[in-house]
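To whoever is on call:

I kicked off a structure prediction for a single chain this morning and the downstream step that reads the tokens threw a length-mismatch warning. I double-checked the sequence; it's 351 residues and nothing unusual in it as far as I can see. Pasting both halves so you can look.
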Amino acid sequence: LLTLALPAVYRSIPWIFAVSLLTVTFSSSGILDAYTLELLGETNKTMYGRYRMWCALSWGAGAVGMGWLTDRFGFEWNFILYGFMGFLSCLMIAALVPKRTMVEEQEQDEEQGKIGDLIRLFSRPRVVLFCLELILVGGAMAIVERLLFLYLVDDLGASTFLCGLSVGVTVLLELPTFWCADWLLRWLGHDYLVAVSMLCFVVRAYGYTLLTPSTVTWVLALEVMHGITFACFWISVMDVTKILSQQVHGWNTTIPVLTNTIFQCVGGGLGSILGGWTMNKYGSKYMYHGISTIMLVALVLHVMGALVVRYCGSSHCKTFLPTKNEQDPDTTEHSSDPENEELIDKDGPFL
């Protein structure tokens, strides 16, 4: 990203595209999530939020600081400082993160995971629904995170400092939400955490359409809801990812990476492209009206599906996922413990 500070690069769309492509090619967020979940283990997996909270804190503080710097020293400093911090991050990873965790050291001599097991896992109806919701929510969040500043600056005349501050306030509720992840998972469960996330997104996206140049600062109040939107969703996703990793042997890193890829690359990519096209052709407010409506419909379907699957989990009919006795013989020996099986069978369509 340091090259984006060069005028010859940031004034050329093909060069910007090439640099962006190379940047996302070496993204490691999924690997770091897998490493964190591996270190936490089964007993402490719900404490993931307390580690993810620090990423949210740095994200908010950095955005506020960079907004202030951009107003005073120019946009190039974003890429210079990002490159410097990225270099420090690489040094810390090289020095502190081991090549293998203790669990991986113990399993390295065991039989490698079978690709057939992974394919069967991601072919289950409820896992397919999980992936579709990842794409939908990832696309919706991308429309906000990657296009909101264009709307604020071009349509509403906002300053870059206000844009940075709008990111900073997103962590006000994100921090306590991540901190309370364990309690939220036990109290609400996966499905209703996602429902709360969708509801906050609907209110937030519709609220953008009500802003005017004279009321643009109210975007700060709307952005506070991002903390609930993202934190509730990601807490649920990571817990489901951990459960999926226990269903097949040898894919503990691949499954979190696939989850991140579906959410950020597939969902985020589609959302950015379709959102950008809609904004260019019909305008920003039409785009945010549209995505809020789509997410409202998804919310209704999600809640209905959760209720139906919970009802079907009783003696009246079978659940989507196989029960312990119905699993494939090849994957039964590596399946999770009975407590996880009970959680999978009883939690709704989001697994």
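Update from on-call: the warning came from a stale cache, not from the record. Cleared it. Sanity check on the structure: Residues 92 and 132 are 35 Å apart (CA to CA).
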